[in-house]
Specification:
single chain; mainly alpha; two-stranded antiparallel ribbon; 16 helices
Amino acid sequence: MLTPGCVQTDGKTKGFPTNRELVLAFALFFLTWGVMQLFWISRAILIVTFLSALFAIPLSRLATKLERRGVKRGLTTAGVMLLIVGLFVGAFFLAGPLLKQQFADVRSKIPHALKRIESAIGGALPSMITQPERAKQRPGDVEAVKGTTEKQDDTGKSGESSPMREQLGGAVSWLFPFLSKSMAAIGGIVLVIVLTIYLATDPGTYLAGFLHLVPKPKREITRQVAGELADELNQWLITRFIAMVLIGAITTGALMLIGVKGAFALGIFAGLMEFIPFFGPIISAIPAIAIAFADSPSQAMWTVIAFLIIQQIEGNVVSPLLLKRKLHLPPALTVGAVAILAAGFGALGLLIAEPLLVTVLLLTKRLWVERTIGDHSIEQPQDSH
């Protein structure tokens, strides 16, 4: 006979959860919920910290090399960061007026370009109607269509926004967020600079603090994986920065040859967007093509061809030459990571998508596949050529 509060399973009697177990379950639930909420609230800080650690890797290695020659690490890290900031400030003062004018021209021309694209699309639609279909239309229908077209033309002339212009016009503020949120961007940049200097000046302290959280038998392999991860991220970052400079310069020259207005500003924008895999080149091409189309469709066509050629050069020439060994990032995983992080974290998610994927793949392979499962048979794919 079972006592109240007991159940029998497989011949064994088990009691219902006690009050203490219920309290522990609720406490665990709310603790998990609180940690997730804290993570979500501080997501921007976590992303900025990840970017700072990423930028600190090559800076720390440079400081280590100079330290062997008698130069203090703190002096090296602070001096390099001040030099980089000084170069940017100097370039801004030298090219600032031109950039300001060209970015202003770009922002002012995009709505006109969108209007012209909409007009071209609207003008092409009536020509798609075949002559037999037109014959079936009654005179009243033709007059109604003409009246609607004239009304749309009058609306465009009066300066009122059409639905297409309202939807596509919002892309300007999204494509150029640094123009409308400059103060927040400056604050984030300052925070990244400060954290980068601290992490690069004394990386051993932070690594040792992290290793203290790892059980002693696992500390050596954790140290090895951390070193290998630093090598991979350092290689990825240097390659990406060189590619940004090259693509920015090539894009600027190509747009100048084509005659696209604001070529210098658009080239800088293309170089910055090169940091974002897959979607960055598409984002950088949109304003250039739109501005070119505002001048002439043929110029827009040459702009499209130029961007296609530039991306082929980047994918088949620049990156293979810069990378001593490939990182083997599966394209499907890269696109998925960029899409997921962009949807969850916005523009900051785009910045960390690829380096975070490098981190996750390496940690999964070294700590789970090889150490936990014991499978060492998975090798990186070799080129078939």
